[in-house]
Amino acid sequence: MFRMVSNDAPIKWPVTIHTPVDGGESVKSEITAHFMLLPLSEAADLVGDQAFLESILVGWDGVQDEAGNPLPFTAENRDRLCEISYVKSGILAAYFECSSGAARKNSRKRRGTG
To answer: How far apart are CA 111 and CA 70, in angstroms?
Structure first.
């Protein structure tokens, strides 16, 4: 049975980023985004707008600067990261996967149960 509860805490969700490299290849990396799930009425008004990213991406784990140091989550760092098109694509894809209630592919394997 489904229990309807308020969702006012961020949900940590994996984000896959495909960084393009020479030769038509990409390097795959993963970060963990902290997403706020928006009500559909609010999300519909914001999709495609910078305010949408500001509303849904409220934290992260696994993001580093060029020297390999952890990059703290700040509004400025979020905006800089989301200016990178392939990062923004990964974040949006992960958010829509998360908000749809879809189970992450290979999640059993990831937890060591598969």
So the answer is: 24
Please report, for residues 5, 16, 113, the alpha-carbon distance to residue 82 in angstroms, rounded to integers and kept in the order given: 30, 14, 34
Q: Contact 86/19 with Cβ under 8 angstroms?
A: yes
Does residue 51 carry a pLDDT above 90?
no
Sheet holding 57-61, edge to edge: 11-21, 25-35, 57-61
* Dmax (CA) of the chain: 50
Beta-carbon-side half-sphere exposure of residue 33 (alpha carbons within 13 Å): 30
With a CB cutoff of 8 Å and minimum separation 6, the contacts of 56 are: 35, 36, 37, 38, 95
Q: What is the pLDDT of residues 6-18, one digit of tens each?
A: 777 899 999 999 9
Are 54 and 88 in contact by the 8 Å Cβ rule? The answer is: no
Q: What percentage of residues in the chain have a pLDDT greater than 70? A: 86
